[in-house]
From TrEMBL:
It is found in: Secreted. Keywords: Coiled coil, Secreted, Signal. This is C1q domain-containing protein. The keyword Zinc does not apply.
Length: 214
């Protein structure tokens, strides 16, 4: 429309002749003014449409960037795996204790996603999903007590690994898959009147990883 109006305006400009009557010139000027008004309106509309298109494109780009950032964060969150042992820098026996005690696995060679806290011994689920956990317990045999520990979700004791024998080194292990919500905690609790032993061989371990988010 802008091109056609401009073309018509040029035609009218070329059509004005010095020999034309005053009335004819006035009519031509009136037509030119009308065309100028129309051309200005068209240009304003075009500018507005261009600005709206630019704003719409910026909005779409911002949405796309937000989705990409969200997917990147989800990808990072979904990379969760850890493996830890009690210490293993020297020979040490923990327990027996008269009450249940949370085991703190301080030697952490793997902690992808940093969901396991080596200061508290607690794993905190960063995303809703299915997780798999494994834990091993072991100590030297004693007629008085065995070696046992519970896998605990929040405050619920679920599965227990336990072994007892007269002498020699005894050990036991368990594995369990759990559906966890964001913020659920999982840890290992030493059974009352049992013990665990660790040395550089890392006999007592706690491991877990995210199988898939849900």
């Amino acid at each position: 429309m802008k091109i056609s109006v401009s073309f018509m305006l040029l035609l009218l400009l070329g059509a004005i002749s010095p020999s034309e009557s005053v009335e004819s010139k006035q009519d031509t000027l009136r037509n030119m003014n009308a065309l100028l008004v129309q051309l200005k309106a068209d240009m304003t509309l075009l500018q507005r449409e261009t600005q709206e298109q630019a704003a719409q494109q910026k909005t779409e780009v911002d949405k796309l960037k937000t989705e990409v950032d969200k997917l990147n964060k989800q990808q990072i969150v979904q990379q969760v795996a850890f493996s830890a042992s009690l210490g293993g820098t020297g020979r040490a026996t923990i327990g027996p204790f008269p009450s249940a005690t949370t085991l703190i696995y301080k030697y952490v060679p793997t902690n992808i996603g940093n969901a396991y806290n080596p200061n508290t011994g607690v794993f905190t689920a960063p995303v809703r999903g299915a997780y798999n956990f494994e834990w091993w317990v072991g100590a030297f045999g004693d007629n008085g007590w065995g070696s046992g520990a519970w896998l605990v979700k929040n405050s619920n004791q679920l599965f227990m690994a336990y072994e007892q024998q007269k002498d020699g080194f005894m050990s036991s292990s368990k594995g369990m898959t759990l559906l966890l919500e964001v913020g659920d905690i999982v840890f290992i609790r030493l059974q009352v009147q049992t013990s665990v032993f660790d040395d550089p061989g890392h006999h007592n371990t706690f491991s877990g990883h995210l199988l898939f988010p849900m």
